[in-house]
Amino acid sequence: MHRHRLAASVIACFAVVMLLVGACAPAATPTAQVIVQTQVVTETQIVSGSDYTGPKYRINLWHTIPTDTETFFIAELMPKFNALHPECTIVSRNLGVEDASIIRTGLALPLDDANRPHLWWLASSETGAYVEADVLADVDTWLNAHPDIKANIIPALLELSSYAGKVRSLPWMTNNTAMWINVDAFNAAGVPVPSQDPETTWTWEEFADAMQKVTEANAGLKGFLVSVNTGWDFWTFHSWYGAAGGDVSGLAVLNSPAAIKAVQFQKDLLDNGYATTTPTGWDAAPWYAGEVAVMANGPWNFPKLSTFTDFEFTVAPYPRDVKPATNLGGDQLFIGKTPTPEQEACAFAFGEYVLSDDFQIAFQKQSGNLPVTLSAASSQEYQDHLAQYPFMAGFVNQTPFGVARPPIPLFGEVSNAFTPAWDDVMLNGVDPTERFDLLQSEVGGILGQ
Question: Which residues lie closer than 8 Å to 390 by C-beta, 6 or more apart?
Fold first, then answer.
């Protein structure tokens, strides 16, 4: 089918030119419930099943891998690492909620504390803060000593992993959000389903028209779901801001014409009755329940999407204005300083495993996220996966147009300032220009400008 060919051709382009974890598997033994900043987290020691009797070195891995994928990670992927490195004991701790403050609390522990994280996954936006705190191992030197590994990382993601001229972390997986579309609702309204090609897909005007028509033709359903009250709104804002022609080379200029246009566009959808709001933008429950026809969400929901049959659906890129854009996401593998050289060697061995084709293809196929290496992305196994699930093209095709969050030390504070301004406009009727002029002044104060 045409969609299959499009998905295959674009991912091949993405992999080549984008600039931009069996039998006799060891058991995973739950060992503790640990309280970290009031968050209950589950710790799992991944036990090696080999006959190795030499010294073993503990490495703490903190993450928020979703439950289904975590089960796969521990049962299917970690045994392979254990077989390669029986000297390394990975203690996997699922924090439940991806919260940078929890990681920072862990990193405040003494270097030789048994509970301090040595590996953790988190978005790249924290990189600057970690560099300033001097908590990271020397990933740049390690990568330069492994040029084949470095050359295989997709260039845009290598850049995303860098700060102040050096590579600071390793990409674990990448993703973005795209438009989940209830095709049945579109058909009822006589609205054509947009192309999965970001450069020819719907425009903002066509998107607004579609939201009006599907709202009016489907009782009890709104066109679009607008996120409020969380950092999710700032992340997805980058898609609209980039599409409107905003400067994406650094931190968004929040009172620029592109920013105001992006804010006003979603405000108009709400004011006209063609959208509704949610305080949990990452939660797809309203879309699954048929309460909204379109929402922005990500491929990490693949385990459920791949078996969902309540209504016909597809995934399309964000609508384009001046140009295509999406919000580039994913999680990095941060490698922290360790008490001993042997632990550091185990940490980097795990990083090397994460970047292997065996890990990348298997983990991304199960989780729905996208590969970070050229070889995994272009592999026949991954191409066959895309052909089997054509909705994935909506995510894959727009990856080259991703807008990354800048890894500045104070990005979290800027994000925290954004949400009240966004909510004032979307929920309280405040004028976008006035409120975002004030927000830009607040950002200047945060950055000391």
Answer: 1, 3, 4, 7, 314
As a whole number, mean pLDDT of residues 113-131 equals 95
| pLDDT score of 33 | 31
Up-side HSE of residue 192: CA atoms within 13 Å toward CB?
7
Helix (H, G, I), strand (E, B) or coil at 360: helix
The token pair at 362 is 């298997």
Alpha-carbon distance 353 to 407, whole Å? Answer: 25
Three-state DSSP state, 51: coil
Question: 191: which 2 tokens?
Answer: 């609205």
What digits encode the pLDDT tens for the residues 223-245?
999 999 988 999 999 999 999 99
Q: Domain 2-175+329-399 has what CATH class?
A: alpha beta
CATH of domain 178-317+410-446: 3.40.190.10
Helices (H), 35-114: 67-72, 78-84, 100-107
* Among 443, 401, 428, 20, residue whose Cα is nearest residue 256: 443
Residue 226: is it exposed, middle or buried by C-beta count within 10 angstroms (0-12/13-18/19+)?
buried
Q: What is the average pLDDT score of the chain?
A: 90
Nearest in space to 390 (alpha carbons), one of 198, 201, 196: 196
| Spatial distance between the Cα atoms of 415 and 226, rounded to a whole number of angstroms | 17
User: What is this structure's pTM?
Assistant: 0.83
**Is the per-residue pLDDT at 319 higher than 90?**
yes
Q: Where in the chain is the domain with CATH 3.40.190.10?
A: 2-175+329-399, 178-317+410-446
Digit-coded pLDDT (tens) for 4-18: 334 444 444 444 333
Ramachandran assignment for 37, one of left (phi > 0), alpha (psi -120 to 50 degrees), beta (any other): left
H/E run at residue 437: helix 432-446
